[in-house]
Amino acid sequence: MKKCLPKMYKKSIFDIPYQNLKESGIKCLAFDLDNTIALIDQEKVDEKTIDFIKKLKQDFIITIISNNYQNRVLSYAKLFDCDYVSFALKPSTKGLRKMRKKYHLTNKEIAIIGDQLMTDILGGNRAKAYTILVDPLGVKDLKITSFNRFIEKYVLKNFAKKKLLIKGVYYEKNR
Ligand SMILES: [Mg+2]
Questions:
Q1: Could you tell me the distance, in angstroms and rounded to a whole number, from the CA of residue 115 to the centre of ligand 1?
Q2: Distance from the CA of 147 to the center of ligand 1, in angstroms?
Q3: Is 148 or 26 the better-scoring residue by pLDDT?
Q4: Model-level pTM?
Q5: Is 142 a domain residue?
Q6: How far is the CA of 32 from the centre of ligand 1 (A)?
Q7: Which CATH number does the domain housing residue 82 bear?
Q8: Distance from the CA of 125 to the center of ligand 1, in angstroms?
Q9: How many domains does the structure of the chain reveal?
Q10: CA of 9 relative to ligand 1 center, distance in Å
Q11: What spacing in Å lies between the alpha carbon of 56 and ligand 1's midpoint?
């Protein structure tokens, strides 16, 4: 279960201390798409998000690693002019491995940012990347996600009991 515990937990992608990540040696940010960057039924994101992600490109390699299908992920990758992996099957580490190879990175140089413990965080931890949990943007999930959320609820209960992770209590840990 510890494999599902993120190294950092913040409210949203806008609350992450990117400067700290850069200083600790992170070179690549691998964002989840649905409920991390955009709502699942949202076709486009607002200018604020586009500008924000584009700005991060000055300091990091930006990629979107999503379990969603190619058309949806590609349309966002185009908006941000960034790389992507669709149908990544997280918690498989396939997407992260692909990016690691492509950009000659080590696991420690990648931070994965996502809203789900059972896919984003578990996959990131398995790949030994730095893992950052954010609160989901919306309450609506993809159908395939409902089972993961069911398990997640149980894991969160356990984490809360052990005071490891409590929803709404944000934290960051050094690498
Ligand atoms: Mg998500």
A1: 5
A2: 13
A3: 26
A4: 0.95
A5: yes
A6: 6
A7: 3.40.50.1000
A8: 16
A9: 1
A10: 14
A11: 20
Range of the domain at 97: 2-168
User: What's the gap in Å between 27 CA and the centre of ligand 1?
Assistant: 22
pLDDT at 143: 73
How far is ligand 1, taken at its centre, from the CA of residue 63, in Å? 14
What are the angstrom distances between the C-alpha of 55 and each of 38, 84, 115? 17, 17, 22
Domain assignment present for residue 153? The answer is yes
d(CA 48, CA 33): 16
Which token pair is 172?
Answer: 């960051």
Listed residue (79, 90, 78, 98) closest to 32, CA to CA: 90
Residue 123 is assigned to a structural domain of this protein:
yes
Chain centre to alpha carbon of residue 20: 17
Per-residue pLDDT of 106-160, as tens digits, reads 999 999 999 999 999 999 999 999 999 999 998 887 777 788 899 999 999 999 9
Is 158 contained in some domain? yes
CA of 117 to the centre of ligand 1 (A): 9
